[in-house]
């Protein structure tokens, strides 16, 4: 395994937000991190992408502490899409996606045909080729999100970390994007690590699921093993029934809201 | 990357090429128009005014001819003033655009956050207390600008350009007070000198000043252009930039070079108000919202040269320093930007 955390603690002040977490990211597979708002998912992802220096412990990439490696070398191996990136004013879609080529270019090297091809491929994969000459500020939230994913794809890294890549997308584009990432695994052997909020999609697309709670890891493993009624209650404080997803065979979480509990349901009383 | 059917990918690549070309073509057009405007302002500044120098006379004087009155006026007043205007405008324009785009805040330009006035205060200190001039004065201005920049950065902390602007504006006010104080201590109180170091002016410039400034710019600007090319990613914010392998330290290096440019401009012409501040936004508005160093440099130079022309001849018989004019135009612009930022 190429990417791992060794009892790493991360935070923004004195108190760690992620507390002594150890984990291994399986190569060539899709790892999904789930957990309640504010439990430290983004913090963990940023730590693994060397955006935060660990308070203690270390993140290891290819056998060496990621913070001790030249950042440009890391950028050729590990790509990142943060949770809410901001595009500079007036930048066009091609130019933004083209920025993903930066790690592959020397300081004196010019833009090449290979760069054109990589950008074109990224735009096609994310269904944004038609937006190529548009200004990013003037796109819808979902279009913008896909453009940022395209930038990460243009970087052509073996490992790809994405923080909530599906947030602004409609249902069809959510599935498209997850299929696309799944396809990368097949065609390029890309290792994908992403944060998702939709437990059902997480269970469906993850080979490896990490559930976080209060800055620690609550459970890891195959979705079928991790997603249980007791775990969902523990991690999200949500009562739910787990059934079998008829399409994928993975666990399907059916939340029980306050109004749907048997006690709150007059007709269910007799049953 | 992978080899697929030949028709599909070629088409996509063509779309990418075409989309990449459009903004570059627009930029080339904007640069051409700005260059023409600058040329016009430069010619007006050199040839027109109370005493008009004809084009043939201009070339004859440059060739070494002595035309009573005209030669002196051109070689020791009009021409150096126009050239200095261009150089200082370029320095301020680039410095402003670098500050605004790397700090991602249109208010965070060196003339607003105290860097210019830091250079000014230090230069005045060097003149009044240490009796320095020439190159030593440039060095003093650079040290002052650096000191203020570092102090503002330390007090404001590294995150959030909003705090940086607040601290910077306070520092600028303090530096103005320092300049005022130093002039009360100067033995020969010269009103024009005060104006130069508080508002900025191009009059009375000497050729050595121009050569010193030009020498520095020829080294600094290519260095800055080179670094800013690889630091483009910084405009995407620190997280994405790090993800792309551009370290945050590049920001500091870029800002350092911009501080040097500001200080050199101030050492030559004083802290001409708002030139650095307006150059970026104006060139950006012309260029479809995209910041480029060439655009900002040209707008800075146009504002300086045209502003100086207006300052010199707008009111018959009175010659204002250029900073009065740029200040008068810049202040409403600042207000406009502030009201826009609130939305
Ligand atoms: N830049 C920051 N400065 C200080 N505290 C922060 C910062 N970013 C996050 N935190 C704190 O760290 C904790 C974890 O935040 P994090 O962003 O990792 O949560 P998350 O699991 O990604 O949540 P979400 O699902 O809402 O994205 C939160 O309590 C948050 O307030
Ligand atoms: Mg998050």
Automatic annotation (TrEMBL), chain A:
<protein>
    <submittedName>
        <fullName>Iron complex transport system ATP-binding protein</fullName>
    </submittedName>
</protein>
<keyword id="KW-0067">ATP-binding</keyword>
<keyword id="KW-1003">Cell membrane</keyword>
<dbReference type="InterPro" id="IPR027417">
    <property type="entry name" value="P-loop_NTPase"/>
</dbReference>
<dbReference type="Pfam" id="PF00005">
    <property type="entry name" value="ABC_tran"/>
</dbReference>
<dbReference type="GO" id="GO:0005886">
    <property type="term" value="C:plasma membrane"/>
</dbReference>
<dbReference type="InterPro" id="IPR003439">
    <property type="entry name" value="ABC_transporter-like_ATP-bd"/>
</dbReference>
<keyword id="KW-0406">Ion transport</keyword>
<dbReference type="GO" id="GO:0005524">
    <property type="term" value="F:ATP binding"/>
</dbReference>
<keyword id="KW-0408">Iron</keyword>
<dbReference type="GO" id="GO:0006826">
    <property type="term" value="P:iron ion transport"/>
</dbReference>
<keyword id="KW-0472">Membrane</keyword>
<keyword id="KW-0813">Transport</keyword>
<dbReference type="InterPro" id="IPR051535">
    <property type="entry name" value="Siderophore_ABC-ATPase"/>
</dbReference>
<keyword id="KW-0410">Iron transport</keyword>
<keyword id="KW-0547">Nucleotide-binding</keyword>
<dbReference type="GO" id="GO:0016887">
    <property type="term" value="F:ATP hydrolysis activity"/>
</dbReference>
<dbReference type="InterPro" id="IPR003593">
    <property type="entry name" value="AAA+_ATPase"/>
</dbReference>
<feature type="domain" description="ABC transporter">
    <location>
        <begin position="3"/>
        <end position="239"/>
    </location>
</feature>
<dbReference type="InterPro" id="IPR017871">
    <property type="entry name" value="ABC_transporter-like_CS"/>
</dbReference>
UniProtKB/TrEMBL annotation, chain B:
<keyword id="KW-0812">Transmembrane</keyword>
<comment type="similarity">
    <text>Belongs to the binding-protein-dependent transport system permease family. FecCD subfamily.</text>
</comment>
<dbReference type="Pfam" id="PF01032">
    <property type="entry name" value="FecCD"/>
</dbReference>
<feature type="transmembrane region" description="Helical">
    <location>
        <begin position="317"/>
        <end position="338"/>
    </location>
</feature>
<dbReference type="InterPro" id="IPR037294">
    <property type="entry name" value="ABC_BtuC-like"/>
</dbReference>
<feature type="transmembrane region" description="Helical">
    <location>
        <begin position="82"/>
        <end position="100"/>
    </location>
</feature>
<protein>
    <submittedName>
        <fullName>Iron complex transport system permease protein</fullName>
    </submittedName>
</protein>
<dbReference type="GO" id="GO:0022857">
    <property type="term" value="F:transmembrane transporter activity"/>
</dbReference>
<feature type="transmembrane region" description="Helical">
    <location>
        <begin position="137"/>
        <end position="156"/>
    </location>
</feature>
<feature type="transmembrane region" description="Helical">
    <location>
        <begin position="204"/>
        <end position="227"/>
    </location>
</feature>
<keyword id="KW-0813">Transport</keyword>
<dbReference type="GO" id="GO:0033214">
    <property type="term" value="P:siderophore-iron import into cell"/>
</dbReference>
<feature type="transmembrane region" description="Helical">
    <location>
        <begin position="162"/>
        <end position="183"/>
    </location>
</feature>
<keyword id="KW-1003">Cell membrane</keyword>
<feature type="transmembrane region" description="Helical">
    <location>
        <begin position="112"/>
        <end position="130"/>
    </location>
</feature>
<dbReference type="InterPro" id="IPR000522">
    <property type="entry name" value="ABC_transptr_permease_BtuC"/>
</dbReference>
<keyword id="KW-0472">Membrane</keyword>
<feature type="transmembrane region" description="Helical">
    <location>
        <begin position="27"/>
        <end position="46"/>
    </location>
</feature>
<feature type="transmembrane region" description="Helical">
    <location>
        <begin position="253"/>
        <end position="279"/>
    </location>
</feature>
<dbReference type="GO" id="GO:0005886">
    <property type="term" value="C:plasma membrane"/>
</dbReference>
<keyword id="KW-1133">Transmembrane helix</keyword>
């Amino acid at each position: 395994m190429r990417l791992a955390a060794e009892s790493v603690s991360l935070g923004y002040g004195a108190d760690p937000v992620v507390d002594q977490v150890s984990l291994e990211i399986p190569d060539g597979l899709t790892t999904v991190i789930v957990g309640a708002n504010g439990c430290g998912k983004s913090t963990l992802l940023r730590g693994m992408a060397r955006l935060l220096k660990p308070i203690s412990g270390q993140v290891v990439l290819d056998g060496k502490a990621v913070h001790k490696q030249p950042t440009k070398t890391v950028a050729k191996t590990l790509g990142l899409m943060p949770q809410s990136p901001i595009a500079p004013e007036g930048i066009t879609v091609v130019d933004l996606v083209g920025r993903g080529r930066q790690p592959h270019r020397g300081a004196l090297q010019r833009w090449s045909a290979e760069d054109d091809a990589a950008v074109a491929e990224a735009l096609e994969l994310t269904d944004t080729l038609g937006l190529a000459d548009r200004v990013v500020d003037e796109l819808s939230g979902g279009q913008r999100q896909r453009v940022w994913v395209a930038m990460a794809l243009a970087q052509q890294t073996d490992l790809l970390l994405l923080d909530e890549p599906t947030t602004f997308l409609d249902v069809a584009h959510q599935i498209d994007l997850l299929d696309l990432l799944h396809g990368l695994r097949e065609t390029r052997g890309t290792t994908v690590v992403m944060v998702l909020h939709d437990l059902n999609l997480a269970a469906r697309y993850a080979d490896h699921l990490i559930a976080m709670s209060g800055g620690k890891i609550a459970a890891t493993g195959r979705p079928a093993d991790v997603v249980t009624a007791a775990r969902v209650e523990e991690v999200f404080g949500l009562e739910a029934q787990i059934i079998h997803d008829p399409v994928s065979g993975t666990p399907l979480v059916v939340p029980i809201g306050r109004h749907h509990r048997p006690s709150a349901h007059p007709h269910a009383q007799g049953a | 990357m992978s080899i697929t059917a030949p028709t599909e990918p070629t088409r996509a690549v063509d779309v990418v090429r075409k989309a990449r070309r459009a903004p570059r073509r627009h930029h080339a057009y904007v640069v051409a128009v700005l260059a023409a405007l600058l040329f016009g302002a430069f010619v007006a500044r050199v040839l027109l005014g109370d005493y008009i120098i004809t084009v043939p006379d201009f070339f004859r004087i440059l060739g070494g001819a002595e035309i009573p009155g005209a030669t002196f006026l051109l070689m020791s007043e009009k021409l150096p003033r126009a050239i200095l205007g261009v150089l200082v405008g370029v320095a301020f324009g680039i410095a402003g655009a670098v500050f605004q785009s790397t700090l991602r805040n249109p208010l965070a330009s060196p003339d607003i956050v105290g860097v210019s006035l830091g250079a000014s205060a230090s230069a005045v200190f060097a003149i009044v207390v240490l009796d320095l001039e020439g190159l030593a004065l440039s060095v003093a201005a650079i040290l002052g600008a650096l000191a203020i920049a570092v102090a503002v950065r330390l007090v404001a902390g590294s995150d959030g350009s909003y705090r940086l602007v607040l601290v910077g504006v306070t520092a600028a006010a303090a530096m103005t007070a320092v300049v005022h104080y130093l002039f009360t201590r100067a033995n020969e109180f010269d009103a024009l000198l005060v104006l130069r170091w508080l508002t900025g002016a191009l009059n009375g410039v000497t050729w050595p000043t121009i050569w010193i400034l030009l020498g520095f710019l020829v080294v600094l600007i290519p260095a800055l252009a080179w670094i800013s090319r690889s630091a483009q990613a910084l405009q995407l914010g620190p997280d994405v930039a790090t993800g792309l392998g551009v370290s945050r330290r590049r920001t500091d290096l870029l800002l350092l070079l911009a501080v040097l440019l500001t200080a050199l401009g101030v050492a030559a012409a004083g802290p001409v108000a708002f030139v650095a501040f307006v150059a970026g936004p104006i060139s950006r508005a012309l260029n479809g919202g995209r910041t480029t160093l060439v655009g900002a440099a040209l707008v800075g130079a146009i504002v300086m040269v045209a502003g100086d022309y207006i300052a010199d001849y707008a009111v018959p018989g009175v010659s204002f320093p250029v900073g009065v004019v740029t200040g008068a135009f810049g202040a409403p612009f600042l207000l406009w930007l502030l009201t826009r930022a609130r939305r």
